[in-house]
Amino acid sequence: MKKLANKVAVVTGGNSGIGLATAILFAEQGAKVAITGRNQQSLDTATIEIGNDSIGIRSDVSIIANIGSAYQTAAEKFGKIDILVVNAGIYIPGPLADYSEEQFDKTSDINFKGVFFSIQRALPYLNDGASVIVTSSSLGTMGIAGVSAYSATKAAVISLAKSFSSELADRAIRVNILSPGPVETPIMTRDGATPEQFEQAKNYLSAKTVAGRLGTSEEIAEGFLYLASDDSKYMIGGELLLDGGMRIK
Ligand code: NAD
After folding, report:
1. Cβ atoms of 131 and 82 closer than 8 Å
2. At a CB cut-off of 8 Å and minimum separation 6, what does 208 contact?
3. Which end of the chain is more exposed for a tag (fewer CB within 10 A), N or C?
4. Domains with residue ranges and CATH for the chain
5. Is the backbone of residue 24 left (phi > 0), alpha (psi -120 to 50) or beta?
6. Which of the following is catalytic: 91, 150, 204, 226?
7. Which mutation among 16, 24, 92 tests ligand 1's pocket best, with the greatest number of atoms within 8 A of CB?
8. Are 177 and 86 spatial neighbours (Cβ–Cβ below 8 Å)?
9. Residue 189 confidence (pLDDT)
């Protein structure tokens, strides 16, 4: 029996990395999937990979006024939404002393404000009983040098999931967090890192885990499936940590 049969799912940032692997798994498990992202070409390529009649909607989560229309498009095509994965995010590392206001605003606009409004604007399109899952990070509750602004946005969304779960209890909408540890995805090279810097970062991050390696997007997608399905129905305002033991090392 497919775990997401007859369900409608939306995955923000579903055209790459963790979001794409999640969209693929959800479609395999029977869901009708709409993905959002900023690049139409990669959205089109991704929907072919996802299959099952999936659609790709161009939508930037930092342009708040336009977020609702993406949900409207998804709901018109498939019906109201049962699963919302709020996953779009960016990673701009940098030391406290050098971090610019522009870097801070961009990080905060997409990773924090974007998450708040991605959930707010979805409310009219969500079915009662829906599962909302936000991608945080193991860094959200750690204190690692050089990633403070990013980590703070990831801490903020853990708080949002708790508050929203209380606030949406009358509609039985549960909001949970999935916190991945380091995962090999394009996010690590989007900031213009050279292959050498990428290798260095990979080795550094691998050594920070008990597992001794980076995670894969597919391993993280299995966590999203758990949180999306009724298997996790008693989990409300909680956090699933899939970090290869990074937080305990
Ligand atoms: P990725 O770069 O492959 O994917 C990020 C996705 O977000 C892309 O689809 C991108 O188009 C989308 N996106 C970015 N800005 C957007 C915007 N303004 N509007 C709409 N979409 C936007 O990286 P990923 O590693 O798959 O990241 C997915 C999530 O996982 C992010 O929230 C990231 O912070 C989080 N995360 C990643 C890691 C990791 O090590 N890769 C670890 C912990 C958490």
Report:
1. yes
2. 182, 246, 249
3. N
4. 8-180+217-242 (3.40.50.720), 187-214 (no CATH)
5. alpha
6. 150
7. 16
8. no
9. 78
